[in-house]
Design a protein that fits this description.
- The complex is a heterotrimer of chains A (555), B (293) and C (309).
- Chain A is α/β, with parallel strands linked by helices and 555 residues long.
- Helices cover 37% and strands 26% of the residues of chain A.
- Chain B starts with 15 loop residues before the first helix and ends in a 7-residue tail after the last helix.
- The longest helix of chain B has 37 residues, at 82-118.
- With 293 residues, chain B is mainly α.
- In chain C, helix 4 (86-121) packs across helix 10 (229-253) and helix 6 (143-157) packs across helix 7.
- The chains are: A alpha/beta (555), B mainly alpha (293), C mainly alpha (309).
- Chains in contact: A-B, A-C, B-C.
- The B-C interface holds B 131-132, 135-137, 139-141, 143-145, 147-149, 220, 224, 227-228, 231-234, 244, 247-248, 250-251, 254-255, 258, 261-262, 265, 268-269, 272-273, 276-277, 292-293 and C 11-12, 14-15, 18-19, 22-23, 26-27, 29-31, 33, 123-124, 136-137, 139-142, 144-145, 148-149, 151-152, 156, 240-241, 243-244, 247-248, 251-252, 262-263, 266-267, 269, 274, 278, 281-282, 285-286, 289.
C-alpha cells in the first residue's frame, strides 16, 4: 500500500464572478522515501494540490469536488479538524516559497521551532528546546544556541529557509511537501538547500513532494515527476522517462523553452574597436545610506556599485549577471540616471552624461530606454496602451494623429500583438503581453541603447522563451545595442555576446560569453556556474552522490 | 506606407474606475448612505422653499409643542418650528463640513504630493513640520481661539481645516511614495517627461482613489468637530443654528421636551452614518485588496 | 531602542515650546482680556498681575519668565478667584477627570479589542457584521448625543442610574464612562479588526497552520503581537480625544472635573486659568502620545533590537 494515494482529485474555486477549476482528476501515488516532483507553470494547480494534501485549502471559496486522498489507506478529505491538525507538522510537514515572510517576525526563532514538538509530542519546554538546537545544527546552521534567541529579521534568506526546514522536520514526518522552496533564493544558496534536502531525505528516509516551475532544479533530485498544465496532470513518469523519453507535447515545449545553448547570431569581434564604442562607463560609484531606524547617527554605507568601468560597443548585447545584492540592477539604473551616482563618468561620445543637470539630461534621455522586471508595475494602470505609446511617440516628435496611429499599429505588430487591442488597459492583458507592450514603448523612442533589467524573470518559462526570441529579433532587425541584466546564467548565455559578472558591487570577470562559460577564471564565476541546475538528470545526480555524512543520527 | 486608420473602430477597454464603480454598486449600505446624503443636501439647500417657516420666527404664545400636522417635528421653547431649524442647521453644518474639508484637501494633497514625490531632504523637512504640528493638541487650541477671538464662522473653517489637513497630508504622502516607486514612473522619467507632467498624468490619477476615500471620511469628522464646538457654545451662535446648537438647547430641556433633543440628534447621526458608510464603500470599491472577496 | 526613546523625547521639546508660546501670545492678544490695556481692571487684580507678570517688561522677557515659572511647576494665580492659584484649582478637579478617563479607556480597550477579535476571526459572517455595525454606531453617536440620550432613557425614564454626580452613588460612574468610552471603543474595534485581518493574511500565519496549531492559538499567539500595534499607536491620540471628550461628559453629568472647570473658565474669561489648564492638558497629551509611540516601537523587534545583519 502506498504511503499517499491520491485518486481522481478535483478542486474548484467558487467566487462571485464564477467558478474556476484548479485541479482536475489528479491521481498519483507516493511511496515512502520517494521524491515526487510536480512541475508546472503558474495556474497549473500544483500549489492548490499540495495545500489540499495538508488540508490547508481555504474552504469557503475552494471546494473539493471529488476524489480521495488516502494516507496509509485512510481518506483525509472530510476528516474532522482535530485529527487533521494532529497530522500537520507531525506526519505531513510543509515548507513554503518565501522565507522572508514565512516566519513570524514578532517571535524568537527558538519559540517558533519548538512549537510543533510541544504541540504534537508533549515534551517539556526544556526537552523541546534541546531537540530544536540539535535540529538547527543538523540543517547546517552554526551557533544554534545563539540563533534560537534571535528574531527572524536578523537572519538571511538562506538561513531562514534552513530554519523552516528544521521546523518542518523536527517531528520526523513521513512526508515533506516543499512548495517552490528555492525559487526566492540565489542560485548558490539554492544549490545548498537542494543538497540539504537530499541529504536529510537519505538519512531519515522521508518522502518528499517537491513543487517547482523549473525543470532544471528538479532534474537532480526527482525519482518521479508529474507535469501539470491548467489543473490536469499531462504526463507522469520517472525522471529519466520525462527528460529523455518525453511524450506529451507540453512537456516537450517546456523542455525546449529552457535556454540551453549559446547565442546563435554572434557579434563580430572585429567590430570591437574604439571607433565603435557607444557608451563608455568609467569608475561609477553608487552608494546608499541605509539608516538603521530613525536615527541619523547610525548610518551604514551600502556600496551598491563600487568602481565599475566598462565599454558597450555598438550593436552588441552585453550581459550583466550576478546574484541579488550584486549591484547589477543598480548599475543599470545608474547608467539611466534613475538613481544618483556618487562618482564616475558616463561617456556618450564626448559628452559626460553624469555631469549634466536634469534639464540638460532630458535631451539625452530618449537615447536610453529601459525594460523593467515586473510587468505588473511597468505600465500605468490608468491609461490605455494607445495613450502610453502615444506619449512615447510624442517625445520623439511625431505629432499628427494619422502618423501616430500608423506608428502605433506598426509597433504593436513588431512586438507580436494585435493592434485592435490598443484601447485596452494594462490589467486586461497577461504578464507576457504587458511585457511586450513595455518593449513597444521602449523601442517607440528609437533609442540607442536598451537596458533590459531582468525582463523575463517574472514570466513563465514558455512565455519567457517567446519574449527572448522577440528581443533577439528586434535587436537584429533594428541593429540595437542592449545591456541585458539577469541572474539566470542560461538566459544570459543565450542572449549575450559578452558577459560581465558582478559580485558585491564590482565586476569580477568580463569576456566573450563562451569564454566565460567554458573557461571561467574567477572563483566566484566558477561557483556560480557549478550551481546552475541543468535539465539533465544523470549529470545532476552526480552532484548529490558525494555528500559526507556529518549528520547526527541520534535524533 | 500610410494607411488611414480610424481609432474608433477598436474596442474600448474597461478602466479600473469602471471596475470600482461596479463594486460600489454592489455595496448596498454605501448606496443607501449616498441616497440619504443626497436627500439631506437637497433638503438643506432648498430649505427656504420647502418650509413655510423661517428659522427665527418666534411664537412665544405657542412655546414648545410636540410634533403635529402644522409643525412636523414640533416647536422649541420660543415657538420656532423645529423642522425648519433642523434644515437651516443642516445648511450650516454641511457647509462647514464640505468647505473645511475642501480647505484640508487642497493643503493636504499639495503638501503630501510634493513631499512624497520630491523625497530626500525636502520630504524630511516637510514631514518634520507635520509631525510637530500633529503633536499639538488642536482641539484645545481651537477652543482657545474661539474663546479669545469670539465666534467667527470663517475662523471656524480655518481652524478646523488646519487640523484635518495633517492627516490628509500623511496619507497622501504615503500613497505618493508607493506610486513613486513603481516602474512606470521610472519609465516616464526616462522618457524625459517634465516633473509637472509626471505628477499630473501618472501620479495623481493613481492617488485619486485614496483622495476620494479619505475626503469622504474627513467630512463627518469635520461635522462632528463643528457640532462638538457648537454644543459647548463655542461654535455657531444663535439665532443661527447648526445641529450642534440645536442639540445643545435640546439637552437643557431634556426632561420636559425630549423631542427637541431627539430629532436633531437623529438627523446628525444619520448624516454621519451615511457619510461613513459611503466612505467605507468607496474604500472597498477602490482598493480591492482590502475588499471582502 | 534607547536611542529611539531619546530621539522621540527630544522631538517633544520644540512641540512643548510652541504650545506654551502660542498659548501665551494668544491670551495676551485677547481683546478685552486682563492684559488689554484698555480694559478697566479692579486694582487688586492689577497689582497681582503687574507683580506676577511684570507687564511693563518686554514681551519676550515675560514669556521666558513664564516658562521658567512653568519649569518650577507654578502656573500662576487664578484671575477669577484671586488668592487661589491655578495649580490649586487644577489639583482639585484632576482626580475626577483622571478617574473618568481611566475607566473610559479601560472600557474602550476591553470592549473594542474583544469586538475586533471576534470580527476578525470570522470575517464577513454574522460574527463580523454585528460588532462592526455596533462600532459604526459608536462612531456616529458622539458623546454629546449619546450622553443625553442615555440619560433620558436610563436615568429619567427607567430611573436605573442617577442623573448626575460622580462617586456619590454606587452606580453613577457607569453612564459617564460608557458615554465617553463608546466612540473610542468603536475606533479600537475597527482598528483591531483591520490590524488582525492584515496580520492573518500574512505568510507566517500559513506556516503556523501548517504546523497544526489551532485557530485560537494562531489568533491569540501569532496574530495578536502584530495585530494590536495599530491599537497601541492609537492610544496616544485617543488620550487627547478623551480629554476633550471629558469637557462634554463632565458638563452633561455635572462631574466636578477639570474639563468642566476648563469650559467654565473659558466662559468666565478667567485667562490665567485658561492658559494654565491649556498648557497642562497639552503636556498630558504630548506625554501620552510619546508613551504610545514608544510602546508601539518596542513591540516591533526590528526597532527594539535593530537590524544586525
Amino acid at each position: 500500500m502506498a504511503l499517499l494515494d491520491v485518486h481522481n482529485l478535483s478542486i474548484a474555486f467558487h467566487t462571485r464572478n464564477g467558478s474556476i477549476t484548479a485541479v482536475e482528476n489528479a491521481s498519483f501515488k507516493l511511496e515512502p522515501g520517494q521524491t515526487l516532483c510536480i512541475v508546472g507553470e503558474s495556474g497549473s494547480g500544483k500549489s492548490v494540490l499540495c495545500s489540499s494534501i495538508m488540508g490547508l485549502l481555504p474552504t469557503p471559496p475552494a471546494r473539493i469536488e471529488s476524489g480521495v486522498i488516502n494516507l496509509d489507506g485512510k481518506n483525509i478529505i472530510n476528516m474532522d479538524n482535530g485529527p487533521l491538525r494532529a497530522l500537520r507538522g507531525n506526519r505531513i510537514a510543509m515548507i513554503f516559497q518565501d522565507p522572508m515572510t514565512s516566519l513570524n517576525p514578532y517571535m524568537k526563532i527558538g519559540n517558533q521551532v519548538i512549537e510543533p514538538i510541544c504541540l504534537h509530542k508533549n515534551l517539556s519546554r526544556k526537552a523541546a528546546w534541546e531537540q530544536a538546537i540539535k535540529m538547527i545544527s543538523n540543517v547546517g546552521l552554526s551557533d544554534p544556541y545563539q540563533l534560537m534567541k534571535k528574531y527572524p529579521h536578523e537572519l538571511s534568506g538562506g538561513m531562514r529557509q534552513r530554519v523552516m526546514i528544521a521546523m518542518a522536520l523536527i517531528n520526523k514526518p513521513d512526508i515533506l511537501i516543499a512548495d517552490e522552496p528555492t525559487t526566492a533564493l540565489d542560485v548558490t544558496i539554492q544549490a545548498q538547500i537542494l543538497q540539504l534536502i537530499k541529504k536529510i531525505q537519505q538519512k531519515i528516509n522521508i518522502a518528499v513532494i517537491f513543487v517547482s516551475h523549473d525543470l532544471g532544479v528538479i532534474s537532480g533530485i526527482a525519482d518521479n515527476i508529474l507535469v501539470m498544465k491548467k489543473g490536469e496532470i499531462v504526463e507522469e513518469g520517472s525522471a529519466d522517462d520525462i527528460f529523455y523519453h518525453t511524450k506529451h507535447p507540453y512537456t516537450k515545449n517546456l523542455l525546449a523553452s529552457i535556454p540551453n545553448c549559446a547565442k546563435l547570431d554572434k557579434y563580430d569581434n572585429k567590430d570591437r574597436n574604439s571607433q565603435n564604442i557607444l557608451l563608455s562607463i568609467k569608475n561609477i560609484k553608487t552608494y546608499f545610506n541605509q539608516t538603521d531606524g530613525w536615527l541619523p547617527s547610525n548610518r551604514q554605507l551600502v556600496k551598491a556599485v563600487d568602481d565599475v568601468s566598462l565599454e558597450i560597443y555598438k550593436g552588441e548585447t552585453l550581459g550583466l549577471v550576478g546574484e541579488s545584492g550584486s549591484g547589477k540592477s543598480t548599475l543599470g539604473r545608474s547608467i539611466m540616471r534613475l538613481v544618483s551616482i556618487n562618482n564616475g563618468r558616463i561617456l556618450l561620445g564626448d559628452n559626460n552624461l553624469a555631469s549634466l543637470n536634469s534639464y540638460e539630461l532630458k535631451l539625452y534621455r530618449r537615447e536610453f530606454q529601459m525594460i523593467f522586471q515586473d510587468p505588473y508595475a511597468s505600465l500605468n494602470p490608468r491609461i490605455t496602451v494607445y495613450d502610453a505609446l502615444t506619449e512615447a511617440l510624442k517625445v520623439r516628435g511625431v505629432s499628427s494623429t494619422e502618423k501616430i496611429l500608423n506608428e502605433v499599429n506598426e509597433l504593436m505588430l513588431d512586438v507580436g500583438l494585435e493592434p485592435q487591442h490598443i484601447r485596452k488597459y494594462p490589467h486586461e492583458f497577461s504578464g507576457g503581453q504587458r511585457q511586450r507592450i513595455a518593449i513597444a514603448r521602449a523601442i517607440a523612442l528609437k533609442p540607442k541603447l536598451i537596458i533590459a533589467d531582468e525582463p523575463v524573470s517574472a514570466l513563465d518559462v514558455t512565455i519567457q522563451a517567446q519574449i527572448l526570441e522577440l528581443l533577439l529579433n528586434l535587436v537584429k532587425k533594428n541593429n540595437l545595442t542592449m545591456l541585458f541584466i539577469s541572474h539566470d546564467l542560461s538566459v544570459i548565455r543565450y542572449m549575450s555576446d559578452r558577459v560581465a559578472v558582478m559580485y558585491q558591487g564590482k565586476i569580477v570577470e568580463m569576456d566573450n560569453t563562451e569564454t566565460v562559460f567554458t573557461q571561467a577564471k574567477h572563483p566566484y564565476t566558477r561557483a556560480l556556474l557549478s550551481a546552475i541546475p541543468v535539465p539533465d538528470p544523470i549529470n545532476e545526480r552526480k552532484k548529490y552522490m558525494s555528500i559526507a555524512a556529518t549528520y547526527d543520527t541520534a535524533l | 506606407m500610410e494607411r488611414v486608420i480610424d481609432i474608433r473602430q477598436f474596442e474600448r477597454g474597461r478602466s479600473l474606475w469602471q471596475d470600482a464603480y461596479t463594486r460600489l454598486r454592489r455595496n448596498k449600505f454605501a448606496l443607501i448612505g449616498l441616497v440619504f446624503l443626497l436627500c439631506m443636501i437637497v433638503l438643506a439647500v432648498f430649505a427656504d422653499i420647502i418650509s413655510p417657516y423661517s428659522y427665527e420666527t418666534q411664537d412665544l404664545y405657542l412655546g414648545a409643542t410636540p410634533p403635529s400636522t402644522k409643525h412636523w417635528l414640533g416647536t422649541d421653547t420660543l415657538g420656532r418650528d423645529l423642522f425648519t431649524r433642523i434644515l437651516y442647521g443642516g445648511r450650516v453644518s454641511l457647509m462647514v463640513g464640505f468647505l473645511a474639508t475642501a480647505v484640508a484637501l487642497i493643503i493636504g494633497v499639495t503638501w503630501g504630493t510634493v513631499s512624497g514625490y520630491m523625497g530626500g531632504r525636502i520630504d524630511n523637512a516637510m514631514m518634520r513640520i507635520v509631525d510637530i504640528l500633529y503633536a499639538l493638541p488642536f482641539t484645545i487650541f481651537i477652543i482657545l481661539l474661539m474663546v479669545v477671538f469670539g465666534q467667527n464662522i470663517y475662523l471656524l473653517f480655518l481652524a478646523i481645516g488646519a487640523v484635518e489637513w495633517l492627516t490628509m497630508a500623511r496619507i497622501i504622502r504615503g500613497q505618493v511614495i508607493s506610486i513613486r516607486n513603481q516602474d512606470y514612473i521610472d519609465a516616464a522619467i526616462s522618457m524625459g517627461l517634465s516633473r509637472f507632467r509626471i505628477i499630473f498624468r501618472h501620479v495623481l490619477p493613481n492617488v485619486l482613489g485614496p483622495i476620494i476615500v479619505y475626503t469622504t471620511l474627513t467630512i463627518p469628522n469635520v461635522i462632528l468637530l463643528e457640532s462638538f464646538l457648537s454644543f459647548l457654545g463655542l461654535g455657531i451662535q444663535p439665532p443661527q443654528s447648526s445641529w450642534g446648537v440645536l442639540i445643545s438647547s435640546g439637552v437643557e430641556t431634556i426632561e420636559e421636551y425630549p423631542w427637541l433633543l431627539i430629532y436633531p440628534a437623529c438627523v446628525l447621526s444619520i448624516t454621519l452614518f451615511s457619510l461613513n458608510f459611503l466612505g467605507d464603500g468607496l474604500r472597498d470599491a477602490l482598493d480591492p485588496r482590502i475588499a471582502k472577496d | 531602542m534607547l536611542r529611539y526613546i531619546l530621539f522621540r523625547c527630544l522631538q517633544a521639546v520644540p512641540v512643548l515650546l510652541i504650545v506654551i508660546s502660542f498659548t501665551f501670545i494668544l491670551v495676551r492678544a485677547a481683546p478685552g482680556g486682563p492684559f488689554d490695556s484698555e480694559k478697566v481692571v479692579p486694582p487688586q487684580i492689577l497689582e497681582i498681575l503687574n507683580e506676577r507678570y511684570h507687564l511693563d517688561d518686554p514681551l519676550h522677557t515675560q514669556l521666558s519668565d513664564y516658562i521658567l515659572n512653568l519649569i518650577k511647576g507654578d502656573l500662576g494665580p487664578s484671575f477669577r478667584f484671586p488668592g487661589r492659584s491655578v495649580n490649586e484649582l487644577i489639583l482639585n478637579g484632576l482626580p475626577y477627570t483622571l478617574e473618568l478617563g481611566l475607566y473610559a479607556i479601560l472600557f474602550a480597550l476591553f470592549t473594542g479589542v474583544l469586538a475586533g477579535l471576534l470580527a476578525a476571526s470570522r470575517p464577513n459572517s454574522i460574527q463580523d457584521y454585528i460588532p462592526m455595525s455596533l462600532a459604526m454606531t459608536g462612531i456616529c453617536l458622539p458623546a454629546f448625543v449619546l450622553g443625553p440620550i442615555l440619560l433620558l432613557i436610563f436615568s429619567i425614564w427607567l430611573e436605573w442610574f442617577p442623573v448626575s454626580g460622580w462617586g456619590q452613588f454606587s452606580n453613577d460612574k457607569i453612564l459617564p464612562t460608557i458615554t465617553l468610552g463608546s466612540a473610542y471603543s468603536a475606533y479600537i474595534a475597527r482598528l483591531t479588526r483591520g490590524g488582525m485581518l492584515e496580520i492573518l493574511s500574512q505568510d507566517f500565519i500559513r506556516t503556523a497552520r501548517a504546523k497544526g496549531l489551532s485557530e485560537a492559538t494562531i489568533v491569540l499567539k501569532h496574530g495578536i503581537k502584530g495585530g494590536l500595534i495599530p491599537v497601541i499607536s492609537f492610544l496616544g491620540p485617543a488620550m487627547a480625544g478623551l480629554l476633550s471628550g471629558s469637557f462634554v461628559v463632565e458638563s452633561i453629568f455635572q462631574i466636578p472635573g477639570l474639563g468642566r472647570f476648563y469650559i467654565q473658565a473659558a466662559f468666565n474669561r478667567d485667562y490665567t486659568m485658561i492658559m494654565g489648564t491649556t498648557i497642562f492638558f497639552a503636556f498630558l497629551i504630548i506625554f501620552f502620545n510619546l508613551l504610545s509611540d514608544i510602546v508601539a516601537a518596542w513591540l516591533n523587534p526590528r526597532i527594539r533590537y535593530g537590524s544586525s545583519n
